[in-house]
Amino acid sequence: MVITGPDLTKAPPRSPRVRLGGFVILPRLLDKGRSTIAAKNGDYVFNCPMDRRFFEFVGVNANTLMNQLSCGKSDGQVLAWMLKAGSQRRSAHEIHAWSALEELRCPLDVESRSFFNSIHQSIAPSRIDIMTWFDLLDLDDYVTFGGQP
Fold first, then answer.
1. 89: number of CA atoms within 13 Å, CB side?
2. Residues of the chain with pLDDT under 50
3. Is the pTM here over 0.90, yes or no?
4. Shared-domain flag, residues 13 and 69
């Protein structure tokens, strides 16, 4: 079976803000996973720290999810599998609260702040509205594919 996904050398994955089943990060993670399988992930990394926070929250292993994607499952099928197979059964309220918290996450320690600031300064130093990791990811995706900061 040939797995198709977005070609992340030509366009970014979905924003981390896009939700599937109420979960932020998940659609982006699925785009990166499918693109990794198809060897079209470019500079995007599946199972990065943000992805690992998601895996921990739902109780799913990254390799097991990749196996599901390798079977050609759709977003809806992967979501249904994940909700059934995940070791962490989360209520709609928990999913909403976790997703809201993730949307607001910003670098808190010196090392993370330094990393965040270096990327921010390299792509859009005049943008004072970039405060969260999601802000930075969306901006980086936009600028990487030709947008003006």
1. 1
2. none
3. yes
4. yes
DSSP structure string for the chain: -------TTTSPPPPTT--BTTBSSHHHHHHHHHHHHTT--TT--TT-HHHHHHHHHHT--HHHHHHHHHTT--HHHHHHHHHHH-SS---HHHHHHHHHHHHH----SHHHHHHHHHHHHHH-TT-TT--SHHHHHHHHHHHHTT---
Rounded to 5 degrees, what angle do the CA atoms 135, 136, 141 make? 105
The number of distinct structural domains making up the chain is 2
Separation of alpha carbons 126 and 121, rounded Å: 8
Domain that holds residue 112: 106-149
Tokens of 136: 């930075």
Residue with tokens 């594919």: 145
pLDDT of residue 148: 87
The CA distance from 95 to 40, in Å, is 30
Asked whether residue 80 falls in the same domain as residue 14, the answer is yes
